[in-house]
Amino acid sequence: MRRLLLLTYTFPPDNMAAAARPGQLYRYLPENGYQPIVVASSRDVSLIEHQFVHCVPAPDVTAGISLASALARWFMRFGAPYNDRLPWVPHAATAGARLVRAHSVSAIYSTSPFLASHLAALWLKVRFDLPWIADFQDPVRDNPFRTRRWAYPYDALIEYSIFRYADRLVANTDTVAAAWRNRYPQWEKKISVLWNSFDHLEEIGPGPAPERPYRVLAHIGGLYGGRHPGSLLTTLERLRVDASAIRLRLVGPIDSKILADQRPLFDRMCQSGRLEFDNRMVPRQEALREAAQANYLLLLDLNERNASFQVPSKLLDYVRAGKPILAYTPKNSPVERILARSGIPHVTIAPGTPEAIGDQQIVEFLRSPPELCHASPWFEETFSAKTQAQTVAGLLNGLLA
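The chain above was modelled as a monomer; its predicted structure follows.
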């Protein structure tokens, strides 16, 4: 079996959506002839007891590595526009070099978010000249949440450097891949798509909601940037939807700026009983339980640019939960196209939709019975973690042929 060095800042049991992809590849790539050797940053090392998972920084690092990490921390604080976890790079690169020599590694696979994993892989690529796949769960220049215009040269330089040296570039939607091909036609053949995926071993549903005199529309996951329910709450208030009929439940942490900007609206809706939230990070099992107990699910594919390159990972959980989905997403976005083939009842509302039309869409959605449905065979096959592991193995086979 070939050995693959897998560089990822997040890894299970981290309670982050970005940890799912490397965790699933670690589980299923061995079925396809590759044993991943993971370098990650997880602090909960008590839950990781395997010879092929290495958490860094280690307690016994050299003075040189500590100095390099400190310099990266200084740069990130005073010069870098975003928190890309740069102090982790020297630790990960050093551990990766040691593992490459010790395990006869055949290739390198790095996955983001947090560009630190790609930068560590870039250093290893230059040093060892191993085949390298750079997997972007979030894009760089096309990321609607990297909004600082003065940071454009920073993002452009990092993206170009990774694209130049990586042997394969993986986007997590076809929209991102198309933007890359347009920007870098000279590297078009490097670019592939690997959608976010779910693990069939993690059972979700569908399951019935508990009996209660009202229905719950739930959003599961964090709210940040332009991703907030202000438009929906305004509509519910304008339509005078009563708490005895429907309640919006926000499950997960909420950015302080959203709470400050939306405070009057949030206060009115909470006082009327139409809004419930506790603003805390919840364990994944609790999040899945909240989804199973809701009558409807809310997806907010929104940002300040009204651009849609990504697919929120919660969409996979929502579809498998089998509940009707209300999605705020741009026209012809990846989210809209996936929902159209998912087999799950849904309504999509695009930014800029006229008020009267949006109101009518929400009225019709809330009037529909919250029937349980199963995901389509297309969805089950396309977004299975086993399917995605086979895709990665195919890319590796092509590089190593």
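The domain at 215-377 is CATH 3.40.50.2000 (Rossmann fold).
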